[in-house]
Amino acid sequence: MNTLMQYIGKYFHSMYYVVISVLLIVATVESVGRGFPINLPVAVLAAVILDFSLQRFWLKTPLRVPLSAIITGLIVGTVSVNAPILGTFIAAILAILSKFIIRLKGKHIFNPVVFGVVSVQLLNPAAHGAAMHGSGMTMEGFGPGGFAVSLWLVPLLLFANWRANKLWVSIPYLIATALLFYFSGLANPASLNAQGIFMFLEVLPWYFAFIIVSEPKTSPWVKKEQIIFGSGVAILSVLPLLLFGFYSHVIALVALLAGNLIYAAYRT
User: Fold this and answer.
1) Parallel, antiparallel, or unpaired: how do β-strands 103-104 and 107-108 relate?
2) CA gap 169, 67 in Å, rounded
3) 42 closest CA partner among 89, 98, 74, 101
4) CA–CA separation, 42 vs 28, rounded Å?
5) What is the pTM of this model?
């Protein structure tokens, strides 16, 4: 019994295993009633095989479990669950390649998942079909678990984010996004009663905030820098709406890539 408890404790001591567990639970729950999420194993296998091959045969590193690649595949597969299989496969491949090829002083610059998904969107917009979620008809996502997620799953996302020490990226991002949505008219409560507020909270990009924006290696670790980064990405994502009256989910993703680039330049 003690050995089992020690193993479980060791398992959850690792940020990677915690995030993998949370991502699997969220992907499973959000897929209930929607059929088997074939894009999920496709993305995970593509990411893991490519990452393993590059690590082993290009970088000549020792054999290891590619935990980071598993996470990348899980996120790509989840946010592109409604996309054609080929689009998901290519997005996963590009995500992994970006970590190995697009680097600055030994560190990758762009959030791998977002780089892969945006690249596929730009090459072929039909490869990722946007899907409405819940009551958030103004919020486009990439399918169940994309930008929006069932509110009762948010504590799990929060736990994974806390374990990754990235709360000071995600919380400011969510606060800034909520304010910008409200004052820009992109989304606001139909009323100020409990139901109206609940519907407003439901459209907020919880998954995007707690899992994607706060990706450990492309977002800051220092508290002050995290706050600036999270708030800045939120502002960048809504800026086209404020200036030109135009908004789409792709703009929010491009805003994160821009934030990644600015942060990469800053840390050098």
Assistant:
1) antiparallel
2) 22
3) 89
4) 15
5) 0.86
Going by C-alpha positions, the residue among 82, 72, 23 that lies closest to residue 43 is 72
Please work out, in degrees rounded to the nearest 5, the angle formed at the alpha carbon of residue 31 by the alpha carbons of 29 and 32. Answer: 70
Written as six digits, the tokens of 111 are 């959030």
pLDDT score for 131: 38
CA–CA gap between residue 29 and residue 23 (Å, rounded): 10
Work out the pLDDT band at 259, boundaries 50, 70, 90. Answer: very high
Residues contacting residue 248 through CB under 8 Å, at least 6 positions apart: 140
Greatest pairwise CA separation for the chain in angstroms: 61
Q: What is the pLDDT of residue 136?
A: 38
Distance CA 268, CA 248 (A): 31
CA distance to 15, 66, 91, 103, 125, per residue, from 55 (Å): 21, 9, 19, 15, 31
Domain-wise residue ranges, the chain = 2-267
